[in-house]
Design goal:
Elements lengths: L2 E6 L6 H9 L9 E4 L2 E4 L13 H6 E6 L12 H17 L11 E3 L10 H5 L2 H11 L3
Parallel strand pairs: 1-4, 1-5, 2-4
Antiparallel strand pairs: 2-3
Helix pairs in contact: 3-5
Length: 141
């Protein structure tokens, strides 16, 4: 594993609702984790490949995180609480997997880098550098 990929749910979902979505018969998708407010759900073990990025090579090298929104289109924002939980989680994943200093677009990536999608939405897209900076600060970079 060499990167963390950020996604948004394109919906307001609890951890349980997101897990149920991945378990739905015929659903061709999954993620390693989901974040909603202060809750974190794990759906796929980090050592296994989740089908989240729409790109096999990217899936094979990434831990993927779905982030619940706090409102819908067009901005798809997330709450401050969810964002702060995401920061802490990204820092932890980076530390445990020896990713070193996170760099936006290198070892901290986002869904639309790999597939024709608007994910992770305008709100999170505009907060990716802040996410990197805060996670790096937690990890001493």
């Amino acid at each position: 594993m060499s990167e963390i990929t950020i996604h948004h749910c394109a919906s307001i979902l609890t951890i349980d609702a997101l897990g149920a979505l991945w378990q739905r018969e015929g659903r061709k998708g999954s993620s390693h984790y989901g974040v909603s407010e202060t809750s974190i759900g794990q759906y796929v073990h980090e050592n296994d490949v989740a089908w989240t990025n729409g790109n096999w090579e990217a899936n094979c090298r990434a831990v993927t995180i779905e982030t619940s929104n706090s409102a819908g289109a067009p901005d798809w924002p997330v709450s401050d609480t969810t964002f702060n939980t995401l920061v802490t989680m990204v820092a932890d994943i980076a530390c445990r997997n020896s990713l070193g200093k996170l760099v936006k677009g290198k070892n901290l990536t986002w869904h639309s880098m790999y597939a024709a999608t608007a994910c992770p939405g305008p709100y999170l897209s505009n907060k990716l550098q802040e996410l990197v900076d805060k996670a790096n600060a937690i990890n001493g970079f």
